[in-house]
């Protein structure tokens, strides 16, 4: 195919495309400026305006160039001799054994970490969960008790098979590693069937199999990995499944002239939906059940899961209604998930005598807002200070206040304060937070920025311990690291390799860059008018939104790991050509 065909001609962006990128350039400007808040405070207004203008123009120029280049990559490839003859990509017929192959490759690449650090890595949170499993501590929903129940089943089975607590931990870790290999293998298989070009498929495979971060996370016995697996599947189902698809409605749309508007919306997923119609109601109920199960697990495996689910449903339902009448099946699925969640959080946990999290656990941002206003020159009345003093001693709180890490103040309140006052006077303390905020918006903004900047500010330079913070902590169970197969010298070599990788990671990547990449994906979808694919981004946007509302740490990798692990899937939707990636 020559370079002079209409499809392979280079062209300038349209006016609409140039305008649509302006708000995204503004996001990068605001994120960059707020991410360097301390630097901005030391400069004058004129200097800051100049910096903001530079960031805006630079961001906008980069957005335009990247969107032009990616959207016209087929045309550009025709000018490169060794790429000119590449065949057009089409969907492939996937075989079941290819899925097993991708899964096996993932599992094989994770096994060295498992054998080197057998039986896995325990954090203090996991130690507390195991104490609950063994009956040494009362059951608590501070860390989602549903995950503790999953751990209990697998940990107990491992203990019975091996006769040791170490065997119990090893069995849980292996099952978790297998689940992650199956999920990542599924998405590699999906990319293969979708028609991804070989280069992109190889890069995605390397990402999931050889990137040490993914291997290390599979042996970490926290709640984050299972939740990440569910989040990825839930996001994919949100974009891929339409529970209210109706062939008759499609024909009516074609008849009354709405086909042009809807053709683009369903062009890239019509093959799967046609297959569903041919296979009858069985496939529909399978998809309905899968989406329902993913929604329930999402809500139960993390405290912010219900926020992600409700936020996604809030966007999904209007999108479905835009195309057709009220989406009864989707609405029924959402209601079913909420009913299960409420039954679990109420009668089920009550019957199991599970203690709820304490009051202060969910009040990170309001507490940081108020303390910043009090400690950093805000305007508060004596009555308002007295209300704060009833919760935490105001004379001492300044010694514990950390604008980037809430746990220090939180633990001080638990030890020396009285959080029950808030629980008994919720409405009064809500009004306190609101009144103080209306008089001190600057202090509230500063508190919000500093408590959350690691998740959205690319310029945030805190060192990320993608390896060093995950390890086997001291525990009362006698569980210790027992290297299998590998020698001590091998362990030293692995340690050096992981530390070098961590240093490299911190030079080329930051946690906030995940959000910047995600926003670029959204910008490209807007540039290309592919609004139908925005749905897959919604759960991750909601996840980041939940961190802005309640994160206790400003820069915690595992809290946003789900977005990082989703990049091959998000890119598969975002940057797809007409027939392939």
Describe the fold and architecture.
With 581 residues, the chain is mainly α. The protein is built from 31 helices and no strands. Helix 2 crosses helix 4 and helix 10 runs antiparallel to helix 11. About 6% of the residues have low confidence.
Entry keywords:
mainly alpha; globular
Number of strands: 0
Pairing-aware structural class of the strands and helices?
A: mainly alpha
- Amino-to-carboxy terminus distance: 18 Å
Shape: globular
| Rg, Cα atoms, Å | 26 Å
Low-pLDDT stretches: 247-278
Work out the helix count.
Answer: 31
The largest β sheet comes out as: none
Question: What integer is the average pLDDT?
Answer: 87
Helix content: 55-70%
What fraction strand?
under 5%
Describe the SSE topology.
Blueprint: H1 15-20, H2 22-35, H3 37-41, H4 45-71, H5 73-77, H6 81-84, H7 96-116, H8 124-133, H9 145-162, H10 165-194, H11 198-209, H12 212-218, H13 224-240, H14 247-255, H15 259-266, H16 270-278, H17 281-301, H18 305-323, H19 328-351, H20 364-375, H21 382-391, H22 394-400, H23 407-416, H24 420-424, H25 426-439, H26 441-452, H27 488-508, H28 511-528, H29 538-550, H30 561-565, H31 567-574
